[in-house]
Inverse folding.
């Protein structure tokens, strides 16, 4: 068996710990024992691939999944999926989900006092192109209250799920909006110690993708872990 | 140029909206070879209560020990009906269940062979980045020589090995149980892939 090249460990402070006490749900759910460092094997450097055929074209336009148009401010969310070596992650599946413009999720557990929108599900998928690009048309999600602490509100956000080429590169994250006044108070946004890493979760307003009289553009690039140049020593 | 990987965030409580479209609780297509098994279990929080909002993703080799991926260059056959990927969510009772085949052994470190295993990602509200673990098989003589299992304190290895339970369908596939325990004395072993 030839050597297996692994993936780079994250820069210090750029990924959250499991336990982040201000996020109350982590208290009973974060593992308490240290994770065991294992060498990369074929099991971790391989992973599922999903062909473009899996994703219907309308899956990336969340404003056209029903008979009518959803309420709210239409936006374009686009960007690239790259790795830490600045290589485009092509043909990879990007999944998103979000609240509607009123800040309500189409989910039986979200019963807060805001209307559902019969024309909005809040679910989208795209496969990146040969430059690693993806593009969604959606509506700007609303902020919403939650019960983490007194008068707690989540900033507006869109959930992102990305695969990349391997089990090791799997990423689930959230995209935020520039200038959101709730960001400094959100324990989930603030779970990552490194301020620059946190701020990279904030999308950038983008004139280039803004469509006149149609939709504002927000740009959000996702970076997956890069391949380590040095094969694992114990894999000789 | 060197970039820094995007920081992880929790899936939150409402992930079903965006992720259930790809649910797959039967990994085995037509004509796939191998020993079929169902694996079921729960995800327990620190109070020992099964959580109602967790998702597992599974990745595994086929019965020949071959991954459906370009980096697996082993001279072993792929099977058209088997991708090796599964996504399951716990139901209202907190139970997840999927059907697959027991994978063959795959190459491991130092020229060795790994015991048959599934690699698993666990996602749930309250967890800020996915947890990585493995499911091994009971009564498997190769477990003893498995490089990864041998990195684990012997007292905790059993958290990675599924247990045989009564078949759900008489004459049907073998049934196994494997639980993810997030805290406490029975806490499941999770792995660090440099992350």
């Amino acid at each position: 068996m030839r050597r297996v090249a692994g993936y780079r460990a994250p820069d210090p402070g750029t990924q959250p710990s499991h336990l982040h006490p201000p996020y109350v749900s982590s208290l009973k759910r974060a593992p308490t024992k240290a994770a065991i460092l294992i060498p990369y094997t074929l099991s971790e450097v391989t992973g599922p691939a999903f062909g473009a055929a899996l994703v219907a074209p309308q899956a990336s336009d969340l404003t056209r999944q029903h008979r009518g148009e959803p309420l709210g401010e239409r936006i374009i969310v686009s960007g690239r999926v790259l790795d830490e070596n600045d290589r485009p992650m092509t043909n990879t599946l990007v999944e998103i989900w979000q609240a509607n413009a009123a800040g309500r999720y189409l989910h039986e557990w979200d019963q807060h006092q805001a209307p559902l929108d019969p024309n909005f599900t809040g679910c989208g998928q795209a496969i990146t192109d040969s430059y690693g690009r993806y593009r969604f048309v959606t509506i700007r999600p609303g902020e919403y209250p939650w019960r983490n602490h007194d008068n707690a509100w989540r900033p507006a956000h869109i959930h992102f799920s990305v695969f990349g080429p391997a089990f090791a590169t799997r990423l689930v994250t959230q995209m935020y909006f520039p200038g959101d006044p709730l960001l400094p108070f959100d324990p989930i946004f603030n779970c990552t110690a490194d301020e620059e890493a946190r701020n990279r979760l904030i999308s950038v307003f983008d004139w280039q993708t803004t469509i006149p009289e149609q939709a504002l553009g927000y740009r959000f690039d996702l970076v997956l872990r890069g391949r380590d140049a040095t094969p694992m020593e114990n894999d000789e | 140029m060197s970039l820094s990987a995007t920081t992880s965030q929790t899936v939150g409580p409402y992930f079903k909206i965006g992720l259930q479209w790809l649910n797959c609780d039967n990994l085995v297509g037509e004509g796939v070879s191998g020993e079929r098994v169902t694996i079921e279990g729960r995800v327990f929080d620190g109070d020992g209560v099964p959580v109602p909002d967790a998702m597992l993703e599974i990745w595994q080799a086929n019965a020949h020990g071959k991954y459906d991926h370009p980096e697996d260059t082993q001279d072993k056959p792929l099977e058209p009906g088997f991708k090796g990927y599964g996504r399951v969510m716990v139901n209202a009772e907190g139970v997840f269940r999927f059907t697959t085949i027991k994978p063959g052994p795959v190459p491991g470190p130092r020229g060795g062979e790994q015991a048959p295993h599934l690699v698993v990602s666990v996602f749930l509200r309250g967890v800020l980045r996915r947890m990585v673990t493995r499911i091994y098989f009971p009564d498997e003589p190769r477990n003893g020589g498995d490089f990864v299992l041998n990195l684990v304190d012997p007292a905790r290895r059993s958290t990675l090995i599924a247990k045989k339970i009564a078949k759900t369908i008489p004459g049907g596939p073998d049934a196994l149980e494997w639980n993810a325990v997030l805290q406490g004395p029975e806490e499941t072993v999770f792995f660090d892939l440099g992350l």
Notes: Chain A touches chain B through 88 residues (CB under 8 Å). The helical segments of chain A are 42-45, 195-199. The two ends of chain A are 8 Å apart (CA to CA). The longest strand of chain A covers residues 74-83.
